[in-house]
Amino acid sequence: MEDMALVRKHELPGAPADIDERVDAILNRYSGERRWLINILFDIQAEFRYLPRDALEYVARRMAIPQVDIYGIATFYKAFSLTPRGKHIITACLGTACHVRGSIGVLEELQRGLNVKPGGTTEDGSFTLETVNCLGCCAQGPMVVVDQEYHGQMTPAKVRTLLEDERKK
Hints:
The protein is α+β, with helices and mostly antiparallel strands. The chain is built from 8 helices and 4 strands; from the N terminus they run H-H-H-H-H-E-H-H-E-E-E-H. A hairpin with a 2-residue loop joins strand 3 (144-146) and strand 4.
């Protein structure tokens, strides 16, 4: 039985060999209580930068929760990702106020500079590019958020500088 578990862990390229142990540590922080499932999923995502299938299956077994329930939560909330995300998350606002101030040009420059489309992650795993319909900072638009740091009144030229600075970090 244990050999079969090792085989399953290695079915997915890049799945950490110690995934069960790392998820166990998270589950133990919450005493494995079902009421903490969303917090558990957030902590798993923080640990791996996404929700690996093996981790979700392990949580389902360990907590005796149907996998469909866990996947329902993981796919319902935009904050969760089932695919690997970059070390840095860049979010561009495409809301009305940002749009009329040039957010499309800002987004196009982000795509060029990162060589990814919205929802994608750079090949080196450094950046994930996302879009949202409003960040609530309409007076400062176009807005770009990098790792929860807000950058207002963005232009394509400012995007180039922002990306250069972020790559140096």
